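RECORD TYPE: inverse folding
INPUT: structure tokens
STRUCTURE:
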């Protein structure tokens, strides 16, 4: 059948080439979902929907607080006061738990964020639970440690006196009956103090230095390797904090010889931190003390060779 005969199919080619259409979102827009934190009531005390979520398109130039307000309205949450809610990454592997204007560029297309209580509310909740533990304090401390690496939480926790309370616990020996709790307090403190610009090791009290030194020199009631590792780390940080008064205090409280017995431990973390502190003590010591340290080092070397 020819093309001009009845019943023949006719195909027409476009007179102009088709243009490709870019269906991608503009670079300043991301689409994703927001879920409501099922534990929101724990931090805010109000009644909230048991489970809720919403799809959202977010322009990077939209103010973060405006986005949070918009989402809280969409999810029908109480609108009582400012700084009640916040967003956090579902995956804690991201740079910080809470979403801020500094890390908002980490939000990808197809994101899932959690609408939760603000860092301020988290800080108040944890400080209250630390002061008046109604359950297992170790569980509270484990949850605290999970948040201490976040600058938003740490800033609020310091503002309301959270740092001061942890120092008070250590200085007054309020947790000496539980090595596990002591260890977790120090782990939390190490993470909190690691944030730049909040508080420095040169600012800690002499009482705190003395208490931490007890965990190293054997004057403490109990010994634990994890507690010892944190204590060695803290003393080294204080020693190198560029505060002459604190340096001299550490040199008095932690004699070089007091570290030797810890080299016999099988825990590699302990040995590494002991050797690090030994080097710091040597570098800060006066010349006549350095000679004594060298003699001790020689004796250690001879003992190791014999064994």
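DESIGNED SEQUENCE:
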């Amino acid at each position: 059948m020819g093309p001009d005969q009845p019943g023949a199919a006719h195909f027409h080619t476009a007179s102009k080439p088709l243009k490709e259409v870019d269906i991608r979102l503009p670079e300043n827009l991301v689409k994703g979902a927001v879920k409501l934190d099922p534990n929101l009531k724990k931090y805010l005390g109000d009644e909230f929907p048991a489970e809720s979520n919403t799809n959202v398109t977010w322009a990077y130039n939209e103010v973060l607080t405006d986005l949070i307000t918009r989402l809280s309205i969409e999810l029908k949450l109480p609108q009582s006061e400012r700084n009640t809610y916040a967003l956090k990454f579902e995956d804690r592997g991201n740079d910080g738990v809470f979403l801020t204007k500094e890390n908002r560029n980490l939000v990808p297309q197809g994101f899932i964020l959690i609408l939760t209580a603000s860092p301020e509310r988290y800080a108040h909740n944890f400080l209250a639970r630390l002061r008046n533990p109604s359950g297992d304090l170790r569980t509270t401390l484990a949850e605290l440690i999970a948040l201490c690496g976040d600058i938003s939480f740490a800033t609020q926790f310091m503002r309301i006196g959270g740092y001061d309370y942890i120092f008070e616990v250590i200085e007054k020996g309020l947790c000496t009956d539980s090595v596990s709790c002591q260890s977790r307090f120090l782990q939390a403190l190490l993470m909190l103090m690691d944030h730049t610009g909040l508080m420095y090791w040169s600012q800690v009290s002499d009482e705190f230095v003395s208490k931490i030194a007890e965990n190293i020199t054997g004057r403490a009631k109990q010994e634990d390797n994890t507690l010892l590792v944190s204590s060695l780390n803290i003393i080294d940080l204080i020693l190198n904090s560029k505060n002459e008064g604190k340096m001299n205090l550490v040199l008095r409280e932690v004699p070089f010889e007091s570290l030797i017995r810890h080299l016999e431990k099988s825990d590699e973390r302990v040995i590494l931190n002991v050797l690090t502190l030994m080097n710091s003590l040597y570098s800060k010591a006066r010349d006549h003390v350095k000679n004594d340290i060298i003699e001790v080092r020689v004796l250690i070397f001879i003992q190791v060779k014999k064994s």
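NOTES: Residues 287-306 form the longest helix (20 residues).
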